[in-house]
Give the backbone structure.
Amino acid sequence: APHGVGSGLAAMLSSKRALVATGADDHIDKKVKMTTALIPSSSDIKKQLVETKGVLPRTSTLEAPTMLLTGHGGPVNACKFDLSGELLASGGMDKLLFLWKIEGKCENIATLKGNDGAILDIHWHRDKEFLLTACADKTGVIFDVETQEKIKRLRGHTSFVNSICGSRRGDPFVLTGSDDGSAMMWDLRVRSAIGLLKDEKSIFPMLTCCFSDDSTQAFTAGIDEEIRCWDLRKEKVLYKLSGHKDCVTGMELSMDGRYLLSNSMDNSLISWDVRPYVSTPRFTRQFAGHRHNMDKTLLKAAWSKDGTRITGGSADRHVYVWDAMNGRILYKLPGHQGSVNEVDFHPTEPIIVSCSNDKKIFIGEIM
């Protein structure tokens, strides 16, 4: 297994300090395999495996149209590109946070340690200075990407922290959602939590949370099927979004801040209009095709950066991509051998990444 961390990461971060070498466990074998690409064969969404060499035009800087990244010792629960698209972070049941360089062979360049439990969620904080992880050890953990050191642990929850999210602008706020039925707001400059979001009428676990675009509001959801929008100044519920018929396991705000996407165990994704003042219903569109199963995995949801496509985790081992405007399935991609827990879009290239209970991460081009 490789141990040294290359200097490429420090260059990308314009490092003022030398990159600290970080070793991986000896038993972990990080490798990248080139595979075949999957493309839609017709409008009926059937997929056909084709040999990529000499057939398909290349649309990305990847060495091959589809790449397989291995190295995790257990199910991979989360994977996300940073805002520049230069790095990918992944984490899961093995408690390790991997960083991958997204070009060429997609090499693993760092292994960050510091979580005492399974990593359940990952979030890049703005300009990839920090990485935030939600952990089954009842805490959130903040890593400095440049030094690869754990710099802060968010303590206060009394059960698993299922979700973590950072503010997009303004003060460096972080939001965590937990099985203890509460969400906590943190300021990275302050040691303790600065806010508590808890509906006394609901005792159910919170499975997912995220900030509004201006970070004055927050969205939380979980076992009780409803999505709550909170006024963070008053710590009061402003309104509720009703439409799902089972647990909400993942949410993400679109890049323009206008729409919220939610993934639910009722086998649907829903987009909601969350602008401050709207005269029409906030429910905008429902997407179907993916599946949840009895494993009750916390499957995530994601928007493409231009807002034209959406995706979400699925327990049927497939990666789904929908047209956000009309709800049509654009891709149904096989390859994984376990539940697909998260899918994310690259910010600048036509690339998606998926992670699964099969311990694998796929990165591939789409048209």
User: Anything to note?
Assistant: The longest helix spans residues 8-12. Confidence is low (pLDDT under 50) at residues 1-52.
